[in-house]
Amino acid sequence: MFTISGQLSLDTAHEALVIGIFEKNKPLDGIAAECDNRLHGQISVLLKEGDISAKNKQISKVHTLKQAGVKRLFFVGLGKEEKLTFDLLREAFGKLFKTIKQAKLTEVAVALDTFTTKNVDALDAAHALAEAYYLATYEFPGYKQKKNEREKHINSITVYTEADQAEIKASVFVGSVYGKATNSARTLVNTPSNLLTAADLADYAVRLAGKYGFEHEILEKEEMEKLGMGALLAVNQGSKNPPKMIVLKYQGKETWENVIGLVGKGVTFDTGGYSLKPRESMIDMKTDMAGAAAVLGAMEIIGELRPEQNVVAVIPATDNMISGEAFKPDDVITSMSGKTIEIRNTDAEGRLILADAITYAKHHGADYLIDVATLTGGVIVALGVHTTGAMTNNEALFEQLLEASAETGEFIWRLPITEKDKERVRSSKIADLNNSPGREGHAIMGGAFLGEFAEDTPWVHLDIAGTSVTSKEHDLGPSGATGVMVRTLATLVERFE
Ligand code: BES
Ligand code: ZN
Ligand code: ZN
């Protein structure tokens, strides 16, 4: 897909050449000035008249009308030079690739050095370019008998740069890995639950383990019974599909220490159980395993890039169904930790399966825990659909995650867990915990509940109920699953200290 090259010339044949331009009141320079000369000063005129815009994320197309080997020029507006960030650049590239895809071009060249600033170097730009290409052009294949007329796809991107080519190549590789792994997660989330059961999710994880040499373990129901995973088993009780507890281990250090535990909610479909969801709220509940998908996507990146870290991924997988066997409100169950839980609402099932998964991650030596889950509608009310809710018991771990998320552009914002909140999840009269102490601050109740199982282990909870799926197409992808937190989790692991 990507070729790295040194000499950029307007006389090389390309369907299109992509050039970044900043808003400034100076004459054009570099390759843009060369284009301007070749086209008899017309680029300057178009810029002045606003037909080419240097404003952030504006894409302008100009034909060279046989004046050059490159047939078309795409100018990517980058706004004010000092304001450009890695994140904005990735979005600008995303918009570019959407435009190029729509124009049905198959081959483009990019003048990479026109996208760099003091803050964003050629390596950043190369990463952003590759990642944006995969993210922005992603499509879920779907199941229509008649596939859309096989559209032309971009199949070659030549990257021109004066920077070290081996380094640029490596950066393009990293960006590609990040983009592709996010797309893997998107596809898992977009897949309907009849085609992606807990067993299918486990098979996927085993294939991933095979590809990257991860140690893996898939717990079956009988083993869960022996281990006393009463919370995961309770949620699965109404289902014909057996539950799976999926464990992947990546050892990047000599010894199994400083282990980062990534725990992802894998509810393949959430009907709500006997606390049944209303019909409109049940739609899209195939996406209730987006936390699991985020963890698997991050493991794909870890498998490709092999950082010097130890990681254990734990995914509790089941659907939440009704039947004569299903668990019910008022039931009291015993989790693997020994803590008993009064069920007040069978629709608060995510925290139950995660409770056992967190305990099991600690059992596998996790010294730090990050859980990712489509846990509550409450987080959508609190933070909307562009910001993931975070809760923590450890400032330092949270800071690291915040830094990673600033780099990936996957925004997170912290909600508090106070002693009063803890009292509420401990408010059951007949058990240690109450799985649904009422609607007030219920995103926080979800987090506080999980905190009871993390105990003293540094832990961050990420509620992605609002951010895992989008109803609108965006610069870095179509509507549907976003693959949120794949890149942030992987960045955290890579940078972790
Ligand atoms: N899977 C849902 C949360 C959800 C809601 C995800 C909307 C994506 C979009 C979760 O299991 C759930 O049902 N939570 C309840 C919790 C309540 C019963 C305490 C909720 O948010 O209403
Ligand atoms: Zn639910
Ligand atoms: Zn759920």
From TrEMBL:
Q: Which GO terms describe its molecular function?
A: manganese ion binding; metalloaminopeptidase activity
Q: How is the cofactor bound?
A: Binds 2 manganese ions per subunit.
Fetch the InterPro entries from UniProt.
Answer: Leucine_aapep/pepB, Macro_dom-like, Peptidase_M17_C, Peptidase_M17_leu_NH2_pept, Peptidase_M17_N
- Tell me where in or outside the cell this protein is found: Cytoplasm
> Which GO annotations describe the biological process of this protein?
proteolysis
- Binding residues annotated for Mn(2+) 2, in chain numbering: 265, 270, 288, 349
EC number annotated for this UniProt entry: 3.4.11.1, 3.4.11.10
Its principal location?
cytoplasm
Q: Which domain of life is it from?
A: Bacteria
> What residues sit in the active site?
277, 351
- Assigned protein family: Belongs to the peptidase M17 family.
| Physiological role | Presumably involved in the processing and regular turnover of intracellular proteins. Catalyzes the removal of unsubstituted N-terminal amino acids from various peptides.
Q: Which NCBIfam families match?
A: PRK00913.1-2, PRK00913.1-4, PRK00913.3-5
- Which protein, by its recorded name, is this? Probable cytosol aminopeptidase
Could you tell me which species this protein originates from?
Parageobacillus thermoglucosidasius
Q: Which gene encodes it?
A: pepA
